[in-house]
Amino acid sequence: MKSLAEPAVRHWDFPRGIASVALLLRFGAEHGIPLSSLLDGSEIDTAVLADPVAEIAACQELAVVRNLAHHLPHAGVAVGRRYHATTFGVLGYAFLSAATLQDAITTALRYLDLSFAFTAPSAVIDGDRLVLALDTASLPSDVSAFLVERDLAAIHTVVGELLTGAVPVLEVDFAHAAPEDVRGHEEVFGVRPRFAAGADQSVVDVSVLAEALRLASPETTAVCEEQCRALAERRRESPGTSQEVRRLLESSERFAESMPEVARALSISPRTLRRRLATSGTSYQALLDEVRSKRAVELLSRGDLSVEAVAERLGFAEAASFIHAFRRWFGVTPSRYGRPRR
Questions:
Q1: Distance CA 9, CA 332 (A)
Q2: pTM of the model
Q3: β-strands 201-205, 129-135: how paired?
């Protein structure tokens, strides 16, 4: 078996454009769901929706997905078929101008963080079959089926726009149970999917990879690739999940929030949060210590608070615990910190 390419980054951890959220909101409005219900818990300002170049965190889009899935739990495929190549901005134009489908797929995996996927797709050649598989390990269980169907339907919709004929689908598998109505699935994929199959994947004839795309333009591809590279580099400068955790901790009053509570605020599981922070080379405790130690210095520098008062404001049960932590952070006790040294 041969993999076409591996995603260059963990695409969850970076800012993303507003286009996908706008699409989700339009879909929800068509089905009578109030805007306020769809945006609930996302912290997305409605003014941002009017800015076509606005960027949000992945957890904010996930909150909108969760609200939509709550109202329309079986609409994943219907939503996914609304995603077109042009939905993805400059990345979509890189797809459209590619020489072959293999080139388009390679570009998609290289700049996966410029898409709106929550699953992690891969493309593997297995004999005369091309297997497009979705890794769902990072998905929250309550929206996993919705997102798998959305992402795979979006992939098929875009691939269908690139090719001159129908996508030669051999089979489609989903790990979750079958919904009552699968007509929408058959329309998008061209075959009846197998459910409870133990995998989330689509298998197509490998010959489709070499097909020349009708809008191929090497000049346009070069321009789009350069713009994708520049945009991805800028977004990847963001610390991602660690920055989101840091932001939540910085807004905390007395650091009473536990790690599971912070994970819930980010719409992910504690296990996923732990894994993403480890990938970023940090941990929840390290970020908590970072923010707490900074707050401790700020409070002590005021000069009007006792060590006991600072300990209370930092969420320590007793001053002794704070003193121990402070010595670990800075090598001295709070009372000695900031004293003139010889």
A1: 40
A2: 0.72
A3: antiparallel
pLDDT in tens, 215-257: 999 999 999 999 999 998 888 765 567 878 888 898 888 888 8
CB 130, CB 203: distance < 8 Å: yes
Hunting for tokens 């909101």 — which residue is that?
Answer: 25
Residue 41 zone, left/alpha/beta (φ > 0; ψ -120 to 50; rest): left
CB-based contact 61:143 (threshold 8 Å) = no
Classified as helix, coil or strand, 21 is helix
Provide Rg for the chain, Cα atoms: 24
To which H or E segment does residue 298 belong? helix 284-302
DSSP 211-246: PBPTT--HHHHHHHHHHHHHHHHHHHTS-THHHHHH
Q: Are 130 and 123 in contact (CB under 8 A)?
A: yes
pLDDT tens-place string over residues 175-190: 999 999 999 999 999 9
